[in-house]
Amino acid sequence: MRPTVLMIMSASVDGRITTGPGRNVDEWSVRWPDRGAPQLLRTWLDRWGVDGVMSGSESVLIWSAHPAAAGAADHQGEPWPWPYIVFDGRGRITWGQTAGLIVVTRANVANAYREQLGRQGIDTVWAGTGEHIDVGGALDQLYRRGFRRLALNGGGRLNGVFLRTGWVDELLVAWEPVLVGGETTPTIYDAADLASPTSMIALERLGAGPGPGGSVWGHYHVLDHQH
Ligand SMILES: NC(=O)c1ccc[n+]([C@@H]2O[C@H](COP(=O)([O-])OP(=O)(O)OC[C@H]3O[C@@H](n4cnc5c(N)ncnc54)[C@H](OP(=O)(O)O)[C@@H]3O)[C@@H](O)[C@H]2O)c1
Q1: Nearest 5°: phi and psi at 27?
Q2: In Å, how far are 5, 26, 34, 39, 226 from 76, measured between CA atoms?
């Protein structure tokens, strides 16, 4: 069993989710101070009634290096009111803010990281003993802990793992009125190139419309995963 997963992302019109590799998406505010997407995402998380928000380790490392946001915060530095679930399989993050935090990591992560989690009393989901977190196993454990509706808020590679495996049920994208470009800039969905066009994931549009700050939103049901 696994929770329903609602992927929710802000993006440029060309699908980028930040200004460049290793860069914080908040930098969009330099060019577009009146960003509407963070507000829109927050509204949708409330509307969906999610009971947790998931993120990848790279996103959190980048956010926490940014003065405006650290750990469990949205793009404007507001604390999330929901449990914040971070996939840190390699044990790379030094945790400061731990309120509401759940770390998902591998059972074979380095001892120093295991000790950090224990020392700080951080709620931990142990999933997998291989090279990567066993994401399916982690979702099963989260379900057994009572999580039923989880938001997935990137980055592109964690989204890619979820999408390729068929673990995303709905998708909300808030497009900001900007074009970013780039060759290795993270996108909504970063994964290996498709082996076949049949591996495209079909979506059914549930709704779409204008959002604040010139943004546009699209809400989709994820239909199939033919791979
Ligand atoms: N616009 C938005 O809404 C938005 C939202 C979030 C983030 N962002 C931006 O996204 C960028 C970061 O994205 P990113 O794609 O570089 O990193 P990311 O998705 O945050 O981090 C990569 C994640 O994927 C996991 N992973 C990779 N391969 C895996 C596999 N085979 N099995 C299981 N887990 C796997 C990694 O696990 P390990 O921990 O084990 O390495 C890590 O947690 C940042 O610039 C951030 O600002 C934008």
Answers
A1: -65, -15
A2: 23, 8, 12, 9, 37
Query: Which of 14, 113, 132 has most ligand 1 atoms within 8 Å of its beta carbon, as the pocket-test mutant?
Result: 132
Q: Is the pLDDT at 76 greater than 50, yes or no? A: no
Q: What is the structure's pLDDT at 206?
A: 98
CA of 157 from ligand 1 middle (Å) equals 5
DSSP helix/strand/coil, 114: helix
Cβ–Cβ < 8 Å for 36, 135: no
Distance of CA 172 to the CA centre of its chain: 12
Average pLDDT for 156-161: 98
Q: How many CB atoms lie within 10 A of CB 118?
A: 10
- Closest atom of ligand 1 to CA, residue 41: 3
Q: Where is pLDDT greater, at 76 or 34?
A: 34
**Can you spell out the DSSP letters for 6-54?**
EEEEEEETTSBSSSSTT--GGGHHHH-TT--HHHHHHHHHHHHT-S-EE
For ligand 1, residues with CB inside 6 Å are 9-10, 17-18, 23-25, 56-59, 62, 87-90, 132-133, 135, 153-158, 161, 186, 190
Place of tokens 């380095």: 110
Burial of 142 (0-12, 13-18, 19+ CB in 10 A): buried
**pLDDT band at 27, cuts 50/70/90?**
confident
